[in-house]
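ESCALATION

Customer reports they have been waiting on this structure for their group meeting. Please prioritize. Original submission:
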Amino acid sequence: MIEAPNFEYKYELALYKSFAARLSLAILLIAAGVFLVAILAFFYFQQEQVKEQTASMAKAQLHDAVMRMRLSNAEAQMQRDTMTTDGFIRILQTVQPYKNSFMLMVNDAGELLYTSNDTILGLPSARKKEIITAVLGKAPGMEEVFEGSNLSLLIHEPVQDCRLYVAVVCSRVDILSIYKPFLLYGSIAFFGGLLVLFLFCAFAIYRMVAPLHLFAESARSIADGNMDTPLPEIHSEDELRQLRDSFDYMQTSLKQYIKDLQVTTASKERLLSELVIAHDIQMGMIPTTFPHRQDLDLFASMIPAKEVGGDLYDFIIEGDQLSFIIGDVAGKGVPASLYMAVTRTLFRNLAGNYQSAANIVREMNHAIASTNDSFVFVTLFVGVLDMKTHHLNYCNAAHNAPVLLTANGDCRLLDVEVNLPVGIEDRYHYEDQQIDFPLGSSLLLYTDGLTEAVYVARNGNRRLFGEDRMLYDLEINRNASAQEMVEYLNHHVAIFGDGTEQCDDITLLFLRHGIDGSQHHPYSMPNHILLKNEMTEISRVKSFFFSVCREYGIDDELGKSLNLALEEWVANVINYAYHKGSRGHIDITAEMNDDLLRLVIKDSGIPFDPTAHGEADTRSELENRPIGGLGIFLIRSIMDDFSYQRTADGYNIVTLTKHIHHQ
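Update from on-call: job pushed to the front of the queue and completed.
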């Protein structure tokens, strides 16, 4: 069941869930980023002007000190005196442009005469020499110097006529201190503006997306089946108006679609009901009750690919004469089923009047071809068996050749003339074919739905059931009854397809000319089971084998032991014969000849000869034994014989044999 979405958002308590709030926050972050990038770009491109402006006070105080030093020196010379270093130092000590700035005084020999801060004394000699060299400039100037990771400005100026050079060092902290008020009030204004921008964006976007919430509620109501749910009104000419028009169109289309679907569903239900009735009528037209005679064993089945099909079978027994037919109308569904009904009716009307199969086919061809405006044709096989003279008269009209199982054990396709299908050429001349059909002979009639049954692998490869597989099934089941034969073939086709959709009708008719009391078969009826290569099928093996044991009178204790050997080998086939994920089947046959039980297991998996492996090591400690071999050892210890054969057509056949000593 699909769970309906929850639209009950609470914007006041969970603002972060609101689309408007998230979009506003995104806009806010974008605006803040743009502003910060602009500020950084301004400082980067205006850094020289910033340095000049911030250093103006230091320059003015330094220049004033230099002028006083020159003036004091000039006055001393006029009095024929010499200005002392201490006098110059006292003048420099009055210079303090910033809290952390300090003064330097150097003579023209590069000697540091005075510093108001000992920081420079702790610098490496190379670095100290670099700073002093910068101070010894002949003209006033400004340099950038480093104290650790802190950038500072060195402002220097020569004291002319005194052979002295003075400088003031200003730290970054002092330089930027003049921006503190600007940064403080600017930050307040910046974040206040962002907050106002956020609130404005949230309100504006919320107003814009509020109809989306109404649209969501309307969509939920429509999804619940309320097709007349009103949609919110949108007066703006924007995307929301387009969305509203799209919802309105969707709502109208859904209402019309549901109305059309109701009409279509009702019509389809009537059609399905009629098809079910047609299926019941069609299945009621073909015989489902089969004769119980000593000289005849007959059984047939039809499995339509759709509700109704175009295949047919029928038979009529009058005295010792059996007339039978199998056919396949071109096409499927209702049209084919109508022609099937016509063909079957024609056969029943004609079969009692003719002893020649060709005459029956010629009359049916004339009746269908003379009124066949839709050019539908039918393939047929018609046979007339005289059970007293053991003579079979038959005629084939482009149908699949039946399979003949002779009394001497031969299994082959019956020789047939191809001929044209019925309904194509009104003047076409069909000829009889005849063979002896002694007691013990059998015939399988089938439509192409059997041999053309398809298996589609997961990789898309397709494989047909084919004639070889059909002939093999008939060969190993040659002693089965007609009903067992037909049911076995239908079951094998179902397992072979393994869920692949049936593409065509499958119709089978098997008949065996019965045996008299003087004849007998040395073998009892074989027992067969088809399994998929899945471990869940193991349970079917047990029920199958114990039914075999009951039929052949094998006691329960021995049956349990034999079943263990059988299950062991079937499990090996399921686990190892087929590649992982591939589909296959396992065919098991149980036969009893006097006191000899034979279990034949057949699969089409990877070749593996169990008899080529040596005896398992059962004497060593369990942890020292090699893996594998115990299953084969178990089978050999239970059974009297264990043989393997790999056939030319790609099958593994393992035969387990056991002598049964009845009490």
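Sent to customer with the following note: Confidence is low (pLDDT under 50) at residues 1-16, 516-525, 622-628.
Escalation resolved.
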